[in-house]
């Protein structure tokens, strides 16, 4: 079960509220690359973890819980960036705030209503919501918890890689020192989280031991003629670029890479004609299918 | 641009059509772990690839194009498994197919309408559609193409890891030899595809060179005090499990792992009161905010 | 504005409630092919109709309003089919209704909970909802109202064609005489609605006058070399099948059909390298892009 | 920020695993009526709470945090109900578990694969996911946080009312004593949560003080002729049923209820014709709109 | 069944078309707080209403039917606000309409294309669609019809509370007198609709009789030790704020409120290890699970 | 199976990159009217085509394959329009590009960040994604493949009609000669594609032979009293507008059009009261339903 402390994990301060940046921050809350996703992903991986020991379940719970606090920090940052946002176009046009103008080059605040996310004004009362920078709600199909530990670790590295990429883009777009400071913390946490999921793979023997995923499937049942060959699909048979993936031992140590032009091994498919009663046109049915 | 050959990449044969297995196969077409996802993912990564050279763009195009053929194989398999599926409950109840019954233990076909996906009967005329085993349409937010090459490679490993896990589960659930043969091919291709995306990371120097992602961000700008420390969130301060992620050098060679209990460093947040005109209740407004 | 009469447009009677058929009927309410879609589609086409006269706006309002009554009929049919549905597995197992059993071959009601839609039991209290047979809510992106009258008429023919196809499939799957009677009415209305939208195209001069849609675009601005040629994409240059679409005058009377193998006319695309600050990997950037 | 204790808020035990009940429990995790929704709803209401004091923010944080633990309990219950679920149809058919059969009347386990949610088998490895009983992912547009305290309290009462209704339906459908015990706890918590949100409304003066919501809007600006009249829309002018809503003082004490047949007060709308360049058909344009 | 009158329920006039306001109005059509939602919600509650008498069914039908007319008014308002909207950036830049400029302060129309919703230009031909201000289609999972009358009434109060909050925000953002007049009518109708659903609760005895919802569940089956206690989850045991919800009789008169720190009553969960054939990694399986 | 050629089907050139136009082009990739939809639609129609001969399957494969190349062209166009897009507001404000300004009237580039799609900056690294101009991902429920050939052909005409309408709107909005040239090609292909699907209908005998769809249903089973009558729903009985749809022979030659005011033929529906155990309020249950 869970507990809270009403203080934030790290300070969140905004000197110059910017409703456009509030919008961009939403991506880090409810975007595919955002904190809501990793939070729920780690929780569901933990709660469904099947294993003879509970080490990784425990580890996941620590980090999942940390992530709630990151959502909280970002939601706070969104609300602070929406302080004094214009409630109407007129207000926006009238309020030529000279301080902000000086910072931004004297051009920006006049059109803030056009740039900001209407949902912030119309639906949330100048606060954050669990959706992305386009206003789209987060959809939990992005919570990856496959029941396979190695697949989940790679999913987590991916989530933190896209998460840190987003945080870096936001850092580069930010102009407020408080926002840059908050992002410097979140970027550091993403650095660690990329590391820790990769460390699990390493601890379990690295790709050589863990791949192909799932490693519990007897590879003699797969058609091994096709297991380590790069398939070229250039129409004229131009070979694929040479690389680590076309030659040398495979990274799991179980095969040798090669490259080969793909050619059809199957026939053109033949489906049965439409049947009476199936809602097709008569022309789709066999002359003899009247029964 | 693109070309087709009307033959299949690999043979698809079904001896005993099974509408329930048709349903399960849909997950491999339009599920999050499915072929439609990887196909579009590799295409959009290729089409948006920014780099001084086009090596990975070209490589991605080869494999993306291959994946169209996998969707085609699975769609064919779905249609073949739906041959002679019951069009009504009565037909289902009546058609006690003794051959299938013998295979399955004499119990199954009577209730096939209940088990099959209604969309196959009501909406597609006994054919496949681009959705999953629950009938949910594929949603292209699962096409990950971040503009960051390393993040995309990890996303691709993840996609192929969950894809092969799904294919293995389908293999285990299958009873038709044609279906097992088709899956033994698709599993082998997933083996290779896991390898090839990992090989790109290796070719670029491995995690040490590629992490933290994005590696183009100057790490002196992140708050490095928090970059390699595992944050414990146990309420009673019970430390996290020890592992590769709590000690030793970090996997990018840029830090030392440690573990530490997380404590709030920020204050409880204070938001401005609701403003006149913002649609809040009067009680949410400052007594002095009448302007 | 709108008014109601609490009586139904056509009688809805169910002799033998069938929770599985209740599930299938949901497709006709909230499926892509369903009545909720056409209702909203005709309303939004009417409300947004731009034209010097209001003839088609008026016509659309008549039919849109009729469709509300069709949703009502189907929602009533769903509720009637859920009368006495089992509220638990035990109830389902115990209630071996001999009357239904006789009709269905003595096998069905024992497993009704497994076959029925759980949402009917858990979320609606044995009533209809605006979603499809898989429980997915209707999503209004399927309401097609393009602002182009001819495009909308074709969209409407499509909607009624898939709608009648669905109704026919339900008719074939139904076993209750009341349900067959209700569907015989809805199928007839779909017959008419297909006709009436096609009649608008005819009234405006038929495809020759209305195509290409939009007909207000000056065709001299399109690249007419490609306007009436079927493009073959067979990898080996095998020509497409011959048909009305490869020879003879085009159906708009503005060109001659032909067929031709497609070949690339453009170059391989070259995108700029990733820029500093864009969140890419360093390897994606030009050596010279340090600024 | 947040902390965890690896023990559950309340015991979760399953004597007889039932994959069909696992499916039904998903509705309480990721359904519209489920715990994920209330958890996120209370968090976002807290994090965005604007008010001169923080009382309700604090209160919301306590309960939001509690709700994480409810999701955890249910996710655990799902996983326990999936222990030993069949991985294939053959396994399902073969494993005629006599113990379960005795409980259920000897009929159930043979078809378990058909009844269970395929996602549990194919996508999660026999564990819970953040979606509902039909496999649909939770969509965060159901997280209601409007920025208006009273509207949010009514949204919360609604969420807990539908939540307890669902929990009661699950209790009635359950047959395992451990599951009934867990649900008797969750139902009790829903009882309290309904109360506590209603108590906020009461504490603020009840509906008389809080309605109409938002109470900060000057009612002299609304068209008060229509503020307390029930509008009848029967086609024949048959009056609406009499009730508390057609007579007597309004519940906010600011008007008198009445009922009246609605009649159109506006004209038929007239939109401008389609313009050149807007993609409409020529027939939709004014003869004179050639510019 | 249903009928229409081609006149509007209330006049809709726009003096100065504003494509940005057209965008904001979409939220009142197809947003979660919008008219499409309440319209369908009341219809589905009516059509599925189970009760010994039909009073509330009838009442719901009256209001559901009224709501179609509100969508119609708003759709008309959107179309009128899009009259003469720019079809391209050049047109937008060139058309420095001095009249509008005078009203708005001389700054706005130049960038209208950037501010307006692209869907209005690209997809609807300058008309409304059933989606929100961000262009997201309305999703019918927001149509709440639970089969429980009291839960539905609270859902309706919520819908009208957020609906009126939205209408007030639009009123405050509007600058056109015709739009303010239309909204003054819609706000008044929302006032009434909030009242009428609350009146149903009152008529049935108020919260004391109706709570806990569902009131048909025997409370002796819930774990009453937890039914009226506010659970504190502060990590340091700091008690929750005192309020009506922590002391005094409960609002249903069936208990006494109290507050208590929550502590785990359950154990840490233990799930079975992954099984052979379940697609997990070998490391997740028991050494002994080879069967 | 499938093959690629790394060259584009038609040249794609951008002289003056415009991030706002990049946004608008997304609609042609991942909008409902876009190329991703037709590509997948034709593929799934082909792969599921049931018919005694494979002519239309083959034809569909040719065109489906062509459409991949159109997505590729548009994705390339989006990326080229995003070259040098501003990565922050400051960059946008500072970079008053005099060349672009001269073209656009000196007003545009200063606010480009506000107008561009944030996903292009934050999530894709200045590249295309499979979603629309509002950032919403493409949802494959828009892939229409009904199993009925004629319904599918009308769906295809609709898709190409809305597709060409969109392309024309983009052409009118474009200012770059390269973009106009690319669109002149895509518009021409849409012209042909509209034609070719219509030609299939013609080849099969036209509407007279193909309607009502499905033409395999025995019309004597539909309630033919309602098959060719336009139903008026004006509240006052004002007749519908006269047109081709109210008089003369029907277009399928199987009936005569007429018009008639709709009147209720059914009774007001009566549903059973709520049952014990169904989660309703006690007031919804029969006094006698205690069992």
From TrEMBL, chains A, B, C, D, E, F:
Disordered: annotated segments: 232-291
Gene3D superfamilies for this protein: 1.20.1260.10
Domain of life: Bacteria
Cofactor notes: Binds 2 manganese ions per subunit. Binds 1 Ca(2+) ion per subunit.
GO MF terms held by the record: metal ion binding
Residues reported to bind Ca(2+): 58
Residues that hold Mn(2+) according to the record: 35, 67, 70, 160, 193
Bias (Polar residues): 278-291
Record's keyword terms, sorted: Calcium, Manganese, Metal-binding
Alphabetical list of SUPFAM superfamilies matching this protein: Ferritin-like (SSF47240)
Any Pfam family the entry gives: Mn_catalase
Similarity annotation: Belongs to the manganese catalase family.
Protein's recorded name: Catalase
UniProt lineage: Bacteria, Pseudomonadati, Pseudomonadota, Alphaproteobacteria, Rhodospirillales
